[in-house]
Structure formats: structure tokens, C-alpha cells
Specification:
The protein is 31% helix and 17% strand. The chain has helices at residues 4-10, 24-35, 54-61, 90-107, 128-136; strands spanning 47-51, 76-82, 110-116, 143-152. The chain has a four-stranded antiparallel beta sheet with strand order 1-2-4-3, sandwiched between helices.
């Protein structure tokens, strides 16, 4: 395991993946990270729908007009959802679970990228969430935060640049 400070610096979004499948052990570790993520009042109300079917991956990519086509080229995607009636902090809780999966993937040497779906619509007005619900038979009460694409990295990304950190955005005590 890398030091966490190095893991944070190394984790970058990857939108290009090789054709190599992700091992079942690695998928399990990624999902384990999500299931261990903290939630408001320990509710653990989130749901994770794992998709590895190429046709469904293409459909998920098409559920958003722009910025989700990389999902089609991934060997695996995870749809992150939750019912707001079960958890009023559903956005926060699902976001924490999503980044936990991405950090675990990075620790395994895998790439990942987040495709935001909440409150996105196709040009005809259809909600991206409704499209995804239809593809994967997800219940109507589930809100879909994002689709995470995972795979073996097909590109190289430099680590985050320490010199570009916006320390001026940190306020101690008062603004």
C-alpha cells in the first residue's frame, strides 16, 4: 500500500482503458471500499449496480449527452444510487462511497472516472437517471448520483502538481 498522501496525489481521472478485464478479487475490493465508507447515522442506504456487459456499458455512456462516452470503453462500471426517503444525506453518502471506490481502484493500479448523472438530461428532456433506471431495472425511488468507469489504464497521467494547490482557498478560523 502506498502512503495515503501519495495515493491522493497519484489518483487522476482516466478515460481510456485497455481491454483487459478486472479480476473478481479487485472488483470485490472496490465494492468493499464502498460498503465500508462512512454514511450519515450509519444508514448504509446506498446501492451499487455493477455492469460489465458491453451493450449495457454503451447504453450507460449514451444516457448523458456529453462527457460520459468513456464508460463505453471501460470493462466495468458501477452505478451509485440511493433512495432520498431512506437517507436525507444521500448525495453526500453516495459521493463518499464513490470516491472510496476510486481511491481503492487507484491503490490497485486501476484507472477510474466519474460520470455525473444526477440532474442531467438528454436534449429531448429525458432525465439521464430515468434512462439508467430503464437499462438496469433500478427502482424508481433510487436517485442515481453517478456512473463510475473502471479499468486498466491505457494512458499515463502525471501526479497532481503540488504547485497548483490553491492554499489561498483554505481559511483558518474565519474567512
Amino acid at each position: 500500500m502506498k502512503d495515503f498522501k501519495d495515493l491522493v496525489q497519484m489518483r487522476r481521472s482516466h478515460r481510456k482503458f485497455t481491454d483487459e478485464e478486472i479480476s473478481a478479487d479487485d472488483v470485490r475490493l472496490i465494492l468493499r471500499a464502498a460498503l465500508m465508507s462512512p454514511t450519515s447515522k450509519g444508514r448504509r442506504a446506498w446501492h451499487f449496480t455493477v455492469v460489465d456487459d458491453k451493450t449495457d456499458l454503451q447504453k450507460l455512456a449514451d444516457a448523458k449527452e456529453l462527457y460520459a462516452q468513456f464508460v463505453a470503453g471501460a470493462p466495468l462500471a458501477v452505478v451509485v444510487s440511493c433512495s432520498p426517503t431512506e437517507d436525507e444525506c444521500w448525495i453526500e453518502d453516495t459521493a463518499i462511497a464513490a470516491i472510496s471506490m476510486q481511491m481503492q481502484a487507484e491503490d490497485l493500479g486501476l484507472g477510474s472516472c466519474w460520470a455525473q448523472m444526477r440532474d442531467n438530461h438528454l436534449t429531448d428532456g429525458t432525465a439521464s437517471e430515468d434512462v439508467i433506471r430503464g437499462i438496469l431495472n433500478i427502482p424508481d425511488d433510487q436517485r442515481i448520483l453517478c456512473v463510475l468507469a473502471f479499468g486498466h489504464k491505457a494512458d499515463e497521467r502525471k501526479p497532481q502538481n503540488e504547485d497548483r494547490l490553491k492554499w489561498e482557498n483554505v481559511h483558518i478560523g474565519q474567512w
